[in-house]
Design a protein that fits this description.
The protein has 14 helices and 14 strands. It is of the alpha/beta class and 468 residues long. Bound molecules: pyridoxal-5'-phosphate. Pyridoxal-5'-phosphate (PLP) binds next to helix 4.
Amino acid sequence: MTEIGGGQTAFYARANIVPLPMIARAEGVHMWDEAGRRYIDASSGPAVSNIGHGNARVAAAMAAQAETLDYAFPRLARNRSTLAYTERLARLAGPGLERVHLASGGSEAMENAIKLLRQHAIATGRPAKTQVITCQPSYHGATIATLAMNGEVMMAPFLDGFATPTPKVPAPFAYRPPDNQDAAHYARHCAEALDRTIRDLGPETVLAFVIEPVGGLATGCLVPPADYMARIREICTRHGVALVFDEILCGMGRTGRFLAAHHWPDARPDLVTLAKGMGSGYAPLGAVLAPAALVDDLAERTGFEFQYSYNANPIASAVGLAVLEEYERLDLIGQAAWLGARLRSGLDALAADSPIVGDVRGLGLLHAVELVADKTTKAPFPTALQPTERARRHGLDNGLILYARPTSGGRYGHWLLIAPPLTITPEELDDLLARLAATLQGLAADLAGRLEARAGLEPAYKDLQSSA
Ligand SMILES: Cc1ncc(COP(=O)(O)O)c(C=O)c1O
């Protein structure tokens, strides 16, 4: 008889799936499966669970709000929970980002950011502004519009004739720049590609350039050089193009500052999108942070009237506020900075010892380790060997839940995301690193055996990067 329901796993590809543990409960950085096995949540899911699991204060705030006021549709009524939350978020974001448009997640927030800019362009007599430029590779969401923004080569057949992919410029990878360029030179080339693309399209047609200021899974936590950030700011300003930072994954304190944008005061974005850590897994939340000048001007003209039934939900807002109170009570942003440094030196030490870790990159408690078949040539593993899937399996064997999956078919490389909850203690972090060392050791032996059975390595990523 056909099983009814089947959870989400029923939708995933049958082939090559790592058996997923049946998680029964979670507390802090730990999760337990039904058999009582304990795992460290090494990546906070997909960098979501910033305040850790089982937080009683947030649960109590959620219950209290549900008992007092569960729902009030924002087009029909205001509520104190949402007012307090948006004010707190805007204060943390700082000058220039005084308005907060709430959403139920990252993809929705990303679309709202683009819609806000588009609506303002129309309201101010610039209807030709229809183009949004993004990076290759990149990730901005899973709605149809955001899939078209993603720099994900494997989506080409899905999008073909269905949705129009955005124009792409190369992401400023530093580990393996094409044609043996040095990283700084390549970053300049990437910024010039943005300038050229805007000029080719016609600046009057370009609405925005959207970039993850610190990457997530699509780039393995790429941190662009400061010089690159200053250049893209200057290029966008010169051409009248909005610079949007997608901080859905890297914002909310993960990099050791509330916004990743706060690391680059000379490259301030026009809009920022947030999600993930906002609700920290307790409520679906996302947001666009925008300047009061833009939002208030638009409100005078046409307003921004796009509405979802669940945006600015009072319970979600109460959760978001309680999450921010935990940030303050536990100094989680400071913690991300100083424990981030400990994570980095631990990962650097692992990389020095491991024959398969070619690069470590990231900021704060948001890092990735890049897996390579050869550290000297930086040759990636053949994607057919499924290095990231195997890593997840070895992780589970060592009590680690790792977030890793091949992006762009592995053409830019293979990496594991290491982004534990910001509440992790130094002892728990050391435990995570010890388990990761064991995971990498098992993985190296596993992959070495499989590599021997193959002749040569895949060329892959280079052609793509130089043509991006
Ligand atoms: C950088 C970035 N943007 C957008 C999204 C989409 O967010 P969501 O999954 O909440 O829709 C993600 C999710 O992984 C992300 O990492």
